[in-house]
Amino acid sequence: MEAASLPAREAPRRDGGCLELSVPGPPPEPCTPAELRAFVLGGETESDLCEKVLAQVARIEGALDIEIGDGLAALCLGDRLISLGFSNLKDYAREILGIQERTAQAMARLSRELRSRPLLRAAVRAGEVRLRAAQTILPVATGDAEAAWVERARLDTVRALEKAVRAVRDDGQQDDDEWTRLRVLLTPEDRATVDEALAIAVKLMPGSTRSQRLEAMAQEYLAEHPLEAGTDAGDVLGGSFRPESDRLERQKAELELETDRWSFLPPVGRVPAPGSFDDATSAKEIDARLRELAAKRDAWDQLLGYCAYVVKGSGLWRIAGFASFAHYGSERLGLSARAVEQRAAVEGRIWRVPALRAARDAGLPYEKVRLLSRLPDREIASWIPRAWALTCVSLMAELEERDEKQMRAARTLRVSLPVRIALLLQAAFRAVRGAEGAVLHDGRCLVLMARHFSDTWRPQVRMARTLSQKVRERDLGRCQMPGCSRRAVHAHHVDPRSHGGPDAEHNLVALCGCHHLRGIHGGYIRVRGRAPDQLVWEVGGRAWGKGATSPASRLDVEDCARKLAAAAVGANPSAPQVAQLAG
Tens of pLDDT along 494-518? Predict the structure, then answer.
């Protein structure tokens, strides 16, 4: 396929050193090597051009993220979110904008913090300080020190800024963004012991995550066996945990000096934030503006994902003198290293799995594509119809259930958890070994820790007795409002008792406090029908059912099938070239 036969995508334009935030050509067709060839000047290779385009697009996406963050922060005021049918920001961002929940929360948090830092806010919105640099200096750029930190953020690398911030704070706190993974082998009997302890923990701490329940189990054991835990290597992960090395940190510092902070790379112009939400007063106005910005971000994100995939696969980041692709993402692109790596990985899956690419091209939201990309190749096609029909939170729940079955079959337990909890668990495992006087593997330590927790707290836990408790257990303890990820704390009468509604399970539905008290009783949400499977929801007088929160999933099944078939037939034949280009 020749480049001339494809619709040209508009590259970012320069104007006095400042890139214009223009939208690339019409989505959703992915940016292929043939399209990128239209940009080639002076015999540059496609991968070199991808790197230049990637750096420019990263600035544009960073500017959009700043503006979206302002909108998300504005939407959190008053009853704006609940008037749109959502009890929290992360659900709105995931279901409506297709933005990952942690990313959205970081956007809104940065926007709120910048309000009290006028100099940093002005520099960020003007594109003079990149997003990652601003997030790094945020804890220390306050008061009289703000101006100096803003100037450093304009010039220093992210690594240098992180080191300087740690030196100033020196509080020994563990970064909450650092995560690791625990993986242990368990027999069916041992798994039953751990499951009982987890079930007791969730009754004691409703709505807690699995890592938080493991944290409670470790704290309980250490409270009774503090001396056995010892202090040796208490701050280093090992065993079933994956420890981090400081090798990359040393390499980053060395490369920073050797490459003169990568001054040989093509410079990238700054990109100012596109507008402001200061004059927005209504939730509908903010929502409409956010949808527009999210559509622009999605259009650029496809180009960013493809270029990140090519640059990572071609090894250009290594040739350019970066210690890792994550290092390249932070320093060159100015974005979250984890986000850039994840985006490149998802794009690689999209190109390798035709069914996933067809779904993306047919309009399946990126957040659902990201969730499906974790599945084995052979399973993705069968999950795509479910992804169209479900909200993101329901899709996540079904995928978690699938993973749970896989783990049980493999006799393993895998948990992602913050490093601080991993360190606590490791201390508890040392305490178990000390108390037992034997060298035990981590899986056996976990079982003994869980047994101790169950023996301690089992008498305090009672079975559900009230009708409200039974309804919440029937609904798995989750709020049943479509798109809500919160735990259920109330049971709502679908047909109110004041209208003659019965106290029967079919007339009760589990809800979180926000959707119950502020949503339904506040007049923003209505529900009718028969629980649990025949309920009809309305927000602002409009239907709000399965998948109704996602614009793409509002398409009927036949239309979705036609789009998927058309996308599969029209799949770009240059995919082998992509694999060759990516090395």
Answer: 999 888 899 999 999 999 999 999 9
